[in-house]
């Protein structure tokens, strides 16, 4: 099954793709208008032949919802109105920290880490999902 991992952020949305148990960075979408964002996202879903979406759900360290959690749930609801694909939620606690560490360990220069961070966080979200399924 081909999965699309999404790391939803205030300014950017990181995307990763997984198939056969392996996850890879795909691209980063810059948030502009809501219509353009969903058009771009649906185009990626169609082009990649995605069969399900895995969306990171930001909870605080005690597992409680925050303002960002509610924004992600609103994003999920908006996406669900536009596609029939299943959308799975995964606690994304510490994925940005893990992504930053992976990029640093891989020797990615600091100036490039910022542009790759959201995609790598989406990889971490997919790996969490794959490890729990």
Can you describe this structure?
With 133 residues, the chain is α/β, with parallel strands linked by helices. It has a single domain (3-132), classed as Nucleotidyltransferase, domain 5. It is built from 4 helices and 5 strands, in the order βββαβαβαα. A 5-stranded mixed β-sheet has the order 3-2-1-4-5, with helices on both faces. A hairpin with a 3-residue loop joins β1 (3-8) and β2 (12-19).
C-alpha geometry: globular
- Could you name the ranges where pLDDT drops below 50 across 5 or more consecutive residues? none
In the sheet with the most strands, the strands line up as: 3-2-1-4-5
Structural class: alpha/beta
Strand and helix map with partners:
Elements: E1 3-8, E2 12-19, E3 22-30, H1 34-48, E4 52-57, H2 67-80, E5 87-91, H3 95-105, H4 110-132
Parallel strand pairs: 1-4, 4-5
Antiparallel strand pairs: 1-2, 2-3
Helix pairs in contact: 3-4
Characteristic terms for this protein:
Nucleotidyltransferase, domain 5, globular, 4 helices, 5 strands
Compose a concise summary of this entry.
This protein is of the alpha/beta class and 133 residues long. Helices cover 47% and strands 26% of the residues.
């Amino acid at each position: 099954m081909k999965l699309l991992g999404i790391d939803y952020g205030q300014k950017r949305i990181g995307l990763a793709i997984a198939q056969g148990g392996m996850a890879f960075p795909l691209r980063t979408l810059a948030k502009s208008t809501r219509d353009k964002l969903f058009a771009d996202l649906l185009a990626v879903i169609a082009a990649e032949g995605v069969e399900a979406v895995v969306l990171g759900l930001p909870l605080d360290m005690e597992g409680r919802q925050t303002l960002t959690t509610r924004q992600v749930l609103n994003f999920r609801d908006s996406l669900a109105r536009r596609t029939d694909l299943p959308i799975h939620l995964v606690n994304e606690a510490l994925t940005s920290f893990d992504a930053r560490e992976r990029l640093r360990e891989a020797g990615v220069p600091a100036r490039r880490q910022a542009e790759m961070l959201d995609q790598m966080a989406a990889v971490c979200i997919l790996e969490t999902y794959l490890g729990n399924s």
